[in-house]
Structure formats: C-alpha cells, structure tokens
From TrEMBL:
Protein name: 2-hydroxyacid dehydrogenase
Broadest EC class assigned to this enzyme: oxidoreductase
Domain of life: Bacteria
InterPro entries per UniProt: D-isomer_DH_NAD-bd, NAD(P)-bd_dom_sf
EC code: 1.-.-.-
Keywords: NAD, Oxidoreductase
Length: 317
C-alpha cells in the first residue's frame, strides 16, 4: 500500500480518486509518529515533519513533490544520500510572477508611484507627474534566469516594446529573448539594461551574486527587481545604491530573512517596493500543483521514476 502525506492540501475532488486507486492519504494535521516510517510520498514539504521522516530508521519515503520552483529550503544532500527524488512546481508560477514584474515596471515608469503620493496629499499634479512618466519602447530588460518564468517575463516585456536579454549559465538560446549571454559575460550589456530582473535559483554560485560591484556597474537611473531568492543579493549594497540615487528604483518580493523584521532598514529605503513573497500566488495553487503531481504519479508507481519537473539534486534546481 502506497501512503501519501499531504503536507500541502490535496484538492478534495482528487482525494477520492487516489483512494479508489488504493492509495492512502494522510493529512498533515493527522499524521502520527508511528506513521512516519510508512510514508512513501510527500505532497509538499513541511519543515517540522519532513526532517523527522528522514531521521526515522528504515523509512519508506522516496518522492517529494515540492510546492515551489526553487527547492533550496530542502535538505538536498540528505535527500540525495537517501535516494529520494524531488519534483518541483516549475512553470506553475510563471504567469503570476511575470505579471508582477510588469507591475513593478509600470509602477515606476507610468507615474503611479507619484500619483499615489499626490492622492494621499489631495494634490492634482497633472503636469509635474506627467512630465516624469516614461515609455518603454526601445528600452532594455535583462533577465537572470531563462527558465519558464524568465521566458514568460520576456514574452510580456516584448509585448510592451522592450528589448530582451536573457542570462543563463551556458548561453543557451531561448525563445522570446533577443539576445542571450552567460553569467560570465553579461557585464558587456549590463549598463545598457534599464531593468534588471533576478529569477535565478539559489545555489552556491548565485549566493550574493548581486553585490556592490554589480550595482555599481548598472546604468545610473536604472531599476533592479528581485523575485528569485533573497540570499542572491547583498541587501546593504542595494539600499546604498537606492539611497545615493544611482538606482532609480527597486522592488523585492523575497528577502534574506522572511518574514522581514520590523527593524529592517529595507522598510524605509528610498524608492524600494516590497511585496511579501506574493508574486507566485494564484487562487488555485493546489489544483495546479496536483496537475504536476498526477503526471508523475503513474510513472512513479510503475517504476519509481518521474515524468516531469524532476530536480537535479546536485545542481539544486
């Protein structure tokens, strides 16, 4: 009998189908210590229960379906040692995250930021705000990470008239990007990028990637958006470049410490927009996650393999 731990809710209409297939579903709230060794599959990850399963002698866990694209929060080395495979939610969040990036761009360029301030003060600053607006034709966006999310960002950006430059490890060509560079030669075009977006997974190579030298090399008056991982950027360096005016604006959907502490200086940094890790949220997130899960389930039950979205545990994505 195959046992699935629903660390994330499985939509009710699918629970009955799984049970009819002879599968046992245990909800996270109901799991008992003596059941930990019997769990074969985790639908989602839980930082309290997951490590307990991994530490249980002779446990049966063989597959984790993560609820996110990035999996740096999982104990990847331990999973690899124990022969546990992982699938992620790659692609599920592409549209909402790309739409969030577009909202950042329009917020900073189309007078929305200034209009909100004007509204709060009950001021009709028609000409002043109008003259400060910018259009996007012939501007350039540089996206670090050209997977499904990066691709969707490029699709939307081209619809707004932007030139698109993608950055990946090996310079592999990707649709919707006018140009592809690697993470070793992007410097040749960095100063020309009006908007820089981070969508890279967190790995040893991408940790603290966006540092003082990087922000100094960006063009004056340009914008930086981080929707990848908080640890990929030096937050102190970003704040310095915003406070001294070198960067015109930035937006972060992720932070090194989450929740962001009330004492963090990020809250009051000039021209910084903070969204609380919401860019990937969608109303039917668990239904969409299950669609990935159900593609893999028959293959896993047959031969212990996965059909889609398997994570390379050594690479971290």
């Amino acid at each position: 009998m195959t046992v699935i731990l629903a660390a994330e809710p499985i939509p009710e209409q699918h629970v009955e189908d799984l049970q009819q297939q002879g599968l046992t579903i245990i909800n996270l709230d109901n799991v008992q210590p003596e059941q930990l060794a019997t769990i074969d599959i985790m639908f989602g990850w839980n930082k309290m229960v997951g490590p307990k399963i991994l530490a249980t002698p002779n446990h049966r866990l063989k597959w984790i379906q993560a609820a996110s694209s990035g999996v740096d929060y999982l104990p990847l080395a331990t999973l690899s040692e124990q022969g546990i495979i992982v699938s992620n939610a790659k692609g599920m969040h592409a549209v909402p995250i790309a739409q969030t990036v577009m909202s950042y761009i329009l917020y900073f360029t189309r007078g929305i930021r200034q209009s909100l301030s004007s509204q709060a003060n009950k001021e009709w600053r028609h000409h002043e705000i109008g003259r400060a607006t910018e259009t996007l034709e012939h501007r350039t966006i540089m996206v670090f990470g050209t997977g499904q999310i990066g691709h969707q960002i490029a699709v939307y950006a081209k619809a707004l008239g932007l030139k698109t430059i993608g950055i990946n490890r090996h310079g592999e060509k990707r649709d919707a990007f006018d140009e592809i560079l690697t993470d070793q030669d992007y410097q040749t075009k960095l100063a020309d990028a009006d908007f820089v977006v981070n969508m890279m997974p967190l790995t040893p190579e991408t940790e603290n990637f966006f540092d003082t030298a990087f922000f100094n090399a960006m063009g004056e008056g340009h914008y930086f958006f981080n929707l990848g991982r908080g640890a990929s950027i030096n937050e102190t360096a970003l704040m310095a470049q915003l406070n001294n005016g070198h960067l015109a604006g930035a937006a972060i959907d992720v932070a090194q410490t989450e929740p962001l502490p009330e004492t963090s200086p990020l809250w009051t940094t000039t021209n910084l927009v903070i969204t609380p890790h919401i860019s990937g949220y969608i109303p039917d997130i668990h239904e969409r996650l299950f669609r990935i899960f159900e593609q893999n389930l028959p293959v896993f039950l047959t031969d212990g393999q996965l059909a889609v979205n398997q994570v390379d545990l050594s690479a971290g994505y």
